[in-house]
Amino acid sequence: MSLEKPDLSDSTAFITGTTRGIGKSLALSLAEQGCNIVSTGKTSENNSYGDDKGLEGTIEQTARECEAKGVEALPIELNVRDEEVVQNAVDQAVDHFGEVNVLINNASAIQPANVEDLPAKRFDLLTDVNVRGAYITSRAFIPHLREASADSWILTNAPPVRTDRKTGGSAYAWSKMGMSFVTLSMAGELAGDDIGCNSFWPVTAIDTRATRHFGMGTEDDWRSPEIVSDTVLEMLNRDPAEFTGNAVYDEDFLIEAGITDFSQYNLTEGDPHPMSATMVDPDYERPEALR
Q: CA torsion sign, 114 to 117 to 118 to 119?
């Protein structure tokens, strides 16, 4: 069974971290459904950030690929650690499109390491980019989302909070779970405004530059970013007044939506190990349909 995807032709999405990986996949998948895209990140054709760090992709390239699907796209250079820069980006996006009704907090820093091996400045980076970045970006958007005529959403790429420890990766896990904590807290705060606040997290590791850079398994362990994009599209098919305050795993959520064949997302044959889920939930068990 294939996923019934939403018509997003009346929507505009502001997505953080769209130059590569999951963020780019989200931008292209939403554009495919008619959603205008605000493509944001630090890697721009107007600076040397990507060249200095050997990174492929730019916010402009993602915007062009979205426009090729027939939507309007606006690239905005963005450092989510800087509150003033974030506010200016939000204002620019709203001024350009008139309305932005979907915020996806995707931008994240990653560095799995023991406490002894992770300098305090790297801990600060993980905290600032991940939980603080999601916090200040969401906060800046709340007044606009309240006034949006289309369904309004704050969606965050972060896991359910189901553990009190992560040996060998406490700083990263803490910062990612903090993103969910903020998002789900807003669900209660904004319940009367019909703004759906939810987080989503892959069960397996996803094939991204970061996954490869940090040697987090092999292609046998990864799925493509499209499984995350389909999870978000299914969320956007719901009523934000009803579907809010949820932290979902992609497999569980897509099974509920009717997906039974996950081989379309696998890089190799066989179901990959639930690496991402067990990172934040050591007792995680796959849905019965995939055991």
A: positive
Catalytic residue set: 172
Domain at 12-290, CATH class: alpha beta
The single-letter DSSP state of residue 126 is H
Give the H/E segment covering residue 202: none
Reference 137, options 104, 180, 108; nearest CA is 104
| 116, pLDDT greater than 70 | yes
Helices 170-189, 133-147: crossing angle, 10 deg rounding: 20
pLDDT tens for each residue of 162-194: 999 999 999 999 999 999 999 999 999 999 999
Residue 208: which of 191, 194, 229 has the closest Cα?
229
Structure tokens at 255: 């099974």
Report the amino acid identity of residue 3.
L
Residue 94's H or E segment, with its range, is: helix 83-97
Tell whether pTM > 0.90.
yes
- How far CA 224 is from CA of 5, 10, 211, 258, 263, in Å, comes to 18, 28, 11, 19, 10
